Structures are given as C-alpha cells and as structure tokens.
C-alpha cells in the first residue's frame, strides 16, 4: 500500500515514519491527536429516548415547551381570588366550594367569591390567583373557612415557564446523556433524538499460549480487560483470540475483524521475538506505521498503525503494560473522537502529595499505578504492590496512573497530578 495516501486532512506529521522509529511520550500523544483530527467524525444515529442512556447527543436541544407548562397548583388545596377577601379586617372568611380540578383538566374560568378544590399539578383556573393548602382550612357544609392572612397573590402557584421558558437552551451537542439529561428530554416530550454512533472496536489477542489446548496454557486476560474498558465507554466491541503463532491465522483474523470494525486493538506479538507476528502481518496487509514503540515504562512495544482509514493500536501482551497503554493512550484517543464535548472527554485528574520518592530513567517516561487517599485537606499518593508490566493485581488497589517524565525525580512530599483510573 502507498502509505502516503492522505487521510481526509493529513497533518504533516502523520506521514509514515520509517520502521523502527521510537517516539517519546509527548510525540506519541501528538501523533494520536493529529490522527484523531484527521479522522472523519462519528456518524449519527436517530434513536428512541428509551435507548439514550450513555449515548452522546449529536444535536443542541432548546425548550419547545415551558416548565411548568402552565400556571399550576403546588399543593392539594383550594384555589380562589384574593380580591374576594374583604378589606374590613376580618380574620376569616368562608367561600363556597366548586368542583375539583385535577392534573390533566382544562378548567373553566374561576367563579368569583368561590373556592375550587384543586390538586397538585392541576392548572389554575383563569381568575384564581391563590391556592390555600388543604390542611390550612376548616370545612363547613359545602364551604371552606380560611384565615385571611393566608390569602396572598401567587401563593402555592407555580407559574408557567418559571423553571425555564420556551427557547431556553437545555443541552448541547457532545453531552454524554444520563438520567439528568434524559429527564430534560422527556420534559420536552422528545421521543427520538440524534446521537453519535459508537465506534466499533475489534480486539484481537494473539499468542500460542492462549490456546486452551496449549501445553503451557495461559488465560487470555487482555481480551476481557479491554472489552470491559471499552464497553464501559459505550463502544461496540467484537473480539477474537488467535491461539497460535501462525501469521496466516493472524492475517485472516485481522481481515475478518477489520471488515466489521472502525478501530482495531491487538495485544501481544508486537515485540521483537520470533513469534511476534503483529508488525509483519500488518505490513503484509498494507498498514502504515505511525510510530513503532514508545519511550515509556511499561509499554515500550506499543505501536500505532493505520490500515487504510482504520487506526490499529498494537498493545504489548503483558497485561499490566496493555492496561496502562490503554488507559493513557487508547481511551483518551477514543474519547476525543467520540463526539463528547472536550471538557467531558478530558481524562479526570487527581492531585496530591507523593508519599514516595521515584526517579525515571533518562530514556523512559514511567507510568506508575498509584493509590490516592485523602489525608486532612490534601490528597496523598502511595505506591501499590506489585507493579510489573505483566501484573494486574495492582490495578485493584490503584486509583490513578502517575506519569514521571524521563529523567525526572519526585521526592516525598512533592505535589503531583495523576490521571484518574476509572471504569469509563
Ligand atoms: N528482546 C526484547 N524482548 C522484549 C522486549 C524488548 O524490547 N526486547 N520488550 C519487552 C516488553 S517491554 C514487553 S511489554 C513484551 C511485549 O511483548 P509482546 O507484545 O510481543 O507480547 P508477547 O510476547 O506476545 O507476550 C508477552 C507476555 O504477555 C503475555 N500475554 C500475551 N497476550 C496475553 C493475553 N491476551 N492475556 C494475558 N497475557 C498475555 C504472554 O503470555 C507473555 O507472558 O516483550 C518484552 N520482550
Ligand atoms: O514495557 Mo513492557 O510493557 O515493560 O513489559
């Protein structure tokens, strides 16, 4: 394949770089961000409101119906007109009762010098301007007796549009929807809405040790781990495990997944061993390498390729390294192209003081899973046990990933910021 085939808007530094070319942490992030900019944005789906939870809104929504929709009663009680209260200083008056108005009724005009029974949410009849709560009156024979001090214009009435009027901006493009937004959309009687289509991600693990009949079988940790991370983001994930070191099998599986995926993530087989087949197979398939390995620890073999328009993330097989590369590079990339507004797409950070000292080597940025806890007014980071590139126990104890750039040192008590580890 001609690797110079442009994406829709090729940024200069998305030109293929010779393999092997190792980049540093910042260069890797910059290439990913240029790739994100160059991709076509997500497509749009029209879906029923009942399926909108977790989806990303693809349209601005303004109010077409005010809230409340009309002047309504805030109490179960009696509606009357304050002008019926005598000005002679009487403490109490009696008003004959009218029919009951319930929510859903369109009441006729209020009869002066009477009180209409009214229930919470029911429309105030034209001509009434006060509601007295049921428990504040005494009942007579077809009349209510009320204290004149309770007669105040507007009392217990919610005015049309007092929460928001017609035209009020409610939600913006890029909002990730949850119950808070769905209640607003429901208030507008919206039955269908435009949301961004989630990307289809193909996850492919490979390695002979992953075959269930391998003489030295190893459980596939990366596939369920990646599926969980990606599905929590609302992405559609398909996965395939190639339990062999056969290039032909790997090639067939990549082709099969690529036909149904917008983005491919491979794990394993990306280092320099004799059975590390991902790079040669992707090259046979005409993929271009955008970077080959990153100066990070763990995760050095992490490689980014592009097969036609499809980004291909090649993660190391070691599960700890695969988890960190996904959290630090892949998920932020996916959030940035998902249509989510940039504030929501940004990875949340944790700030606090380090309880440990650490020095990164001069040639690698270190990415360390850390625990975060509040101590007094400050957050404190501490190391979690067993943080090798193949370890996963550490993540159950970790709240974030601390990045210590190449050649830098943190001392006990230094102020640090870590990327929060989250399910989404
Ligand atoms: N000579 C060199 N050797 C290695 C280098 C290097 O620079 N020079 N880099 C090391 C680093 S760093 C890493 S990380 C690993 C990555 O290797 P691969 O991505 O090729 O991964 P594999 O060799 O296939 O597997 C490594 C390790 O991970 C286990 N694994 C693989 N897939 C899974 C899975 N889906 N679930 C659970 N565990 C998995 C596999 O069994 C191996 O134990 O390379 C170093 N070598
Ligand atoms: O970088 Mo590897 O990811 O340390 O084992």
Automatic annotation (TrEMBL):
EC number from the UniProt entry: 2.10.1.1
Reactions catalysed according to its record: adenylyl-molybdopterin + molybdate = Mo-molybdopterin + AMP + H(+)
MF GO annotations: metal ion binding; molybdopterin molybdotransferase activity
Enzymatic class: transferase
Pfam families on file: MoCF_biosynth (PF00994), MoeA_N (PF03453)
Classification of source organism: Bacteria, Pseudomonadati, Pseudomonadota, Alphaproteobacteria, Acetobacterales
Protein name: Molybdopterin molybdenumtransferase
Species this chain originates from: Acetobacter okinawensis
Names of required cofactors: Mg(2+)
